[in-house]
Amino acid sequence: MNRVVVTGIGVASPVGLTLDKFWAALVEGRSGIRPITIVPTDRLNTRIAAQVDDFDPACFDPKFAHQLDRMSRFAVYAAREAMRDSGIVISEELALETATIIGNGAGGQNTLDDSYLRLYGQSAPRVHPLTVPRLMGNAAGSQVSIDLGLKGPGWTVTSACASAGHAIGQAFHMLRSGQVTMAVTGGTEACLTVGTIKGWEALRVLTADTCRPFSRTRSGIVLGEGAAMFVLERRDDAVKRGARIYAELTGFGMSTDAVDIVAADAGGASRAMTAALRDARLAPGDIDYINAHGTGTPLNDKTETEAIRRTFGADAGRLAVSSSKAVLGHSLGAAGAFEFAATALALQTQTIPPTANFQEPDPDCALDVVPNVARAAPLRHAMSNSFAFGGLNAVLVASRA
Amino acid sequence: MQVSDDVKQVIAKELKLPVERLTDDTNLGDLGAESLDVIEIVFALEEKFDINITVKMGADPATANAANASPGTDLSALTTVGDICRAVQALVDAKASK
């Protein structure tokens, strides 16, 4: 079995388009949640989101940009950044052995919304000819492979809020088993359209306050958007070329709740964490930090706490647990990628990013949630949780390089 | 030749070229247009003239008849700027005679 490491990370995030800005905001607990400006809000009750500001499509050739939904622009940008960050110059031989496995929740929602506005709102007789290639669920992943010339296995994973976790886990296992030599993987989502936000409003899970994971005063989700991408390679290859290694990917666990289409189940979440530990050949006592799913809904954070307690037993008391969603919002199919980036950077810098926007402890979330202030700590192994609508759970374990 | 001039303006805008480069004999492929570009030109012309150009990608070129722009007309029938001008003119005339 090959050991697998992370050697490149790229982000298009609500708190910056570089990894330095992204990590600085997470460590400082500086939230990217702001008033929505990228779509009209006059018909929305929701006025806040973590949107990616200052994203300039001029970084693409105009003809290429024209083909890309916002989700694909985020994905291609982040993948380019990850590749550049890794320092790898890809040869034709390596390209043939490189996988492109991208998570995405709901396809090109901006394209869909624009098309429906034309078709139903304005009674236009036709929609744009690139409607289908822009909105198809695999568009972002395919555009990444086209842009970087990656010719190994490629597909898109969709499991709502766990899409990126599943994608990264699949890429990890393919590398570990020797099916591919390298992978570009991660997640992307561009869900801040009037139609999509309306749908979330109707589900009554959005908050007008802000995202406050694990705080007794938490009142719901704030949507976010963006992409985070990774270059994964075999540890031997990375060491041989003297690459900077962020972290080693050591475990991936999955489970399905098979209970409820929206409510998370502690049993399912716990089974995924246990499976990830087993995959990593680690014991609960080996994990020092969990980057939680931590959406900030009253129910999720309580259930996740219960699942962590069930999985870690007595060790739950000494674990540090934080959620990045107070800073990044909930970017659905991209969330697991942003949070795995946070997990890898925590291991690299030996710094635990805090749970921002925290006000007061909740007895239902009795964990050390690292409120508001980052903490330096020796971190050997860390876990990144993604628990999706639909009861699909993906848990990644990473270890200090 | 108002239609023809307007068609050339649309093609020039879509291909980001000066309109002076377009004559009736200009081959779209020689201008670097790929099939998606031709589809976008067709879309822009439909919007501009409020017509339906029923070309298909990948239809049999043997049955193509650009001047009538009949259902099943293949994209490859729209090879030159003149082909497109004639197709649009026919549809504009058909609309006017209704």
Detailed description of the structure:
The complex is a heterodimer of chains A (401) and B (98). Helix content of chain A is 36%, strand content 19%. By secondary structure, chain A is of the alpha/beta class. Chain A has two domains: 237 residues, 3-Layer(aba) Sandwich (Peroxisomal Thiolase, Chain A, domain 1), CATH 3.40.47; 148 residues, 3-Layer(aba) Sandwich (Peroxisomal Thiolase, Chain A, domain 1), CATH 3.40.47.10. Chain A is built from 14 helices and 14 strands. The relative contact order of chain A is 0.19. In chain A, strands 5-4-6-7-1-8-14-13-9-10 form a ten-stranded mixed sheet, with helices on both faces. A two-stranded antiparallel ribbon of chain A has the order 2-3. In chain A, strands 11-12 form a two-stranded antiparallel ribbon. Chain B has a single domain, classed as Orthogonal Bundle (Non-ribosomal Peptide Synthetase Peptidyl Carrier Protein, Chain A), CATH 1.10.1200.10. Chain B is 47% helix and 4% strand. Chain B is built from three helices and two strands, in the order ααββα. In chain B, helix 1 crosses helix 2 and helix 1 packs across helix 3. The longest helix of chain B has 17 residues. About 14% of the residues of chain B have low confidence. Chains A and B meet through loops of A and helix 2 of B.
